[in-house]
Amino acid sequence: MSGPTEERGAAEFLLLIAPSANRVYADAAPSLMAAEIRCLADAFVDGEIEVEPVRVADVEYVRVRAGDLGGSALRALSNASGVHAVYERLGDLLRPVRAERLDRYPSDLLTIQKYPGKTNEQLTRLLLNVTAAATTRPERLLDGTLAVLDPMCGRGTTLNLALTYGLDVTGVDVDKHDLEAYETFLKTWMRQHRLKHTVSTGSIRTGGEHRGRRMDVEVAPTKEDFKAGRSQHLTYLGTDTTRLDGLVRGASVDVVVTDTPYGVQHGSHGDRIARNPLELLESALPGWVRVLRTGGAVGMSYNRHVAAPEQLADLLERHGLTVVGDPADDRFRHRVDASIDRDVVVARKG
Ligand SMILES: C[S@@+](CC[C@H](N)C(=O)[O-])C[C@H]1O[C@@H](n2cnc3c(N)ncnc32)[C@H](O)[C@@H]1O
């Protein structure tokens, strides 16, 4: 859908981004954010659009030229990772436009936890946004009905983002310390913020076999919402992601988003349990595809040092998914450190 906008009164919007706050992306920040905004624009903006990183008076923006940012378009773009403010450009002047953020809880839900191997919150937002944009029902991201699964959720960055967005979410991780740490964090956080909630925990058993622990949470932003049943549901399954049979219903999730193991050691937790990430994905994908609805999408960040984009694309296609875009085009590629050359791949079911 992107392409040159004709000079027929196309409006020009500047999305202020703050690369200084995004040390993790380093020099890739403006182009990476422009790529994310392009995905959202393709899904939410009608008609011709043009998206590119620009500098105005030495400040970085992503410029969006479009006939109209009405309907849900402005709302979708306002929630792109790294967007701090939105302006409409009127000649030499910038008119502030109210950005409509989905975020319904205080931002410390995403920022307060610090631990080795934590996925950067901004990358998590990018991943969820571009994966939702690749589904056949992207509007579900904005209306609160997108069902999210992070099948290797660690201590819950994706879970916290989904809660922030008002969505229901399921997380899976085989490292029992991660579930314990997340449970302690979330209970404390919900209590401190006086959110009406319930938490239940128990063991996971199928066919008499103990397969780990689980936690089920119901929470709402206000007591009234909770009473009226406008609450959110979060489930954390502390078990092996390659065996989701009997635990997650088929065709029940819209997006599977995950930051895959990097094949490097992160202190005492994180990747230590993973075998070769490609082998792990090979055994996990049949289950992930089964729980995905037709028209849903899988989005993964991964380390190019452990898998080439073509290898991942081939793997996803062999499991019946259609890769969105050119996996080797580098638009989301960025260097995290000497051992992590990170990229993102997205694929759709059906
Ligand atoms: C890169 S970390 C994800 C970090 C997470 N996004 C966060 O911010 O906390 C990858 C995760 O994959 C998990 N993992 C590895 N093998 C797994 C398996 N077979 N089943 C479930 N989780 C697994 C690891 O325990 C680790 O937490």
UniProtKB/TrEMBL annotation:
It comes from the Bacteria. It comes from Luteipulveratus flavus. This is Ribosomal RNA large subunit methyltransferase K/L-like methyltransferase domain-containing protein. Residues 145-271 form the Ribosomal RNA large subunit methyltransferase K/L-like methyltransferase domain. Pfam families: UPF0020 (PF01170). PANTHER family: THUMP DOMAIN-CONTAINING (PTHR14911), TRNA (GUANINE(6)-N2)-METHYLTRANSFERASE THUMP3 (PTHR14911:SF13). InterPro entries: RlmKL-like_Mtase, SAM-dependent_MTases_sf.
